[in-house]
Amino acid sequence: MTALSPDELHEIEMLAVELAERAGADIVSRLGSLLSVRYKTGAEDDRTWRDPVSDVDEAVERAIRERLAGRFPEHDVIGEEFDHRPGRDHSVVWAIDPIDGTSNFVNGFPLFACSIGVLERGRPVAAAVWCAASHALRPGVYHARRGGGLQFDRQPLAPARNPMVHRRLAGVPQFRRGRHPWDLRKTGSAAIECAFVAAGLLEAAAFNAPNLWDVAGGVLLVMEAGGTVLEGRPGAWRDFAEFAPRRARDDSPDAPADLARWNAGLILGTSAEAARIMAEEAIDAR
C-alpha cells in the first residue's frame, strides 16, 4: 500500500480536528450534569477504585467511531473504551482517547482532553488534541500533520519563550537524585501534558508506561513543534521513530504482535531538557 499523499494527510488532519472539536463540544455540554461512572478496577467494598469511565467517555468514542466508519471504513481504530477493530492490519490506524483525564473530568477539575492520533505503519502522521485549557486561556484544539508544523484552532502556533523566566515547568513523575532546574507539575492527563510541551507551557514531560491512545496524538504535536521525543526505559533510551506492535506478557509465543499492546516510557521536550531527564533516569536505574 502506498504512503499517504500530502493531500490525504491534510484531509485526515482536518477530519481529526473536526472530530476533536465535536468531542470537546459534547464534553463541555455534560459538565455539571449527573454522570454515570464505573471503575475498571476495584469493587463495591474496595477503597482502591481506579480508572473511572463515564458515559461521556463511551458516547464520545462511539460518535468518533461512527464518523470514521462513514469516512474511512477501511482504516483501523484503536480506542480506549471499545475493543472493536474495523480494519485490523490496515496501514492507517486512528488511536482515540475520548477523554484523557477522566478522573479530573468526573470530579469537575478542568484539565482533560480528547486525543486523536493517526498512525501510518506505526508512524504518527496526523493529530488533533482538544484541551479543556490552553495557552490561550480557553478550550481549543492543538493539531498537526507530518511536515505541516504545529497549529492551534487552524492557525500556526510558534511558542514564544520569555528569556526572563529562568525556572520553567516540567511534567515529570519524580526525581529521586540530584537537583533539577524545573518546578514539577502533573496534570492528570498525558495528552494535555504532551500538548503543553508542544505549546511551550511545559519544558518537558515524561511518562513511565502510557497507553498508545494516551500519547499517539501528543507525540506528533511535540515533533512538529520542533521538540525531541525519546522512547524506552531508564538506561535504554533512544530517539522515537514509531509505535511498534508488541505482544502482551501473557500471550503465547505464537500470538501476533499488536499495535494496541504498545507500551514504553516516553520523554518529550526540547533536546536539551529531554537529554537532562534521560541522564537523570540513567542515574536512578543504576
How would you describe this structure to a colleague?
By secondary structure, the chain is of the alpha+beta class. 29% of the residues lie in helices and 26% in strands. The strands form three sheets. A seven-stranded mixed β-sheet has the order 3-4-5-6-7-8-9, with helices on both faces. Helix 1 runs antiparallel to helix 2 (55-71) and helix 4 runs parallel beside helix 5. The longest helix is centred in the N-terminal third of the chain and has 25 residues, at 6-30.
What portion of residues is helical? Answer: 25-40%
| N-to-C series of helices and strands | HEEHEEHEEEEEEEHEHEEEH
Q: Name the overall outline.
A: globular
On the 0 to 100 scale, the average pLDDT is 89
Task: List descriptors.
286 residues, alpha+beta, 6 helices, globular
What is the fold's blueprint, element by element?
Layout: H1 6-30, E1 37-41, E2 50-54, H2 55-71, E3 76-79, E4 92-100, H3 102-106, E5 113-120, E6 123-131, E7 140-145, E8 151-152, E9 155-156, E10 168-171, E11 182-184, H4 190-198, E12 204-207, H5 212-224, E13 228-232, E14 238-239, E15 265-269, H6 271-284
Parallel strand pairs: 3-4, 10-11, 10-12
Antiparallel strand pairs: 1-2, 4-5, 5-6, 6-7, 7-8, 8-9, 12-15, 13-14, 13-15
Helix pairs in contact: 1-2, 4-5
Q: Summarize this, please?
A:
It is built from 6 helices and 15 strands. It has helices at 6-30, 55-71, 102-106, 190-198, 212-224, 271-284; strands at residues 37-41, 50-54, 76-79, 92-100, 113-120, 123-131, 140-145, 151-152, 155-156, 168-171, 182-184, 204-207, 228-232, 238-239, 265-269. The strands form 3 sheets. The chain has a 7-stranded mixed sheet, sandwiched between helices. Strands 11-10-12-15-13-14 form a 6-stranded mixed sheet, sandwiched between helices.
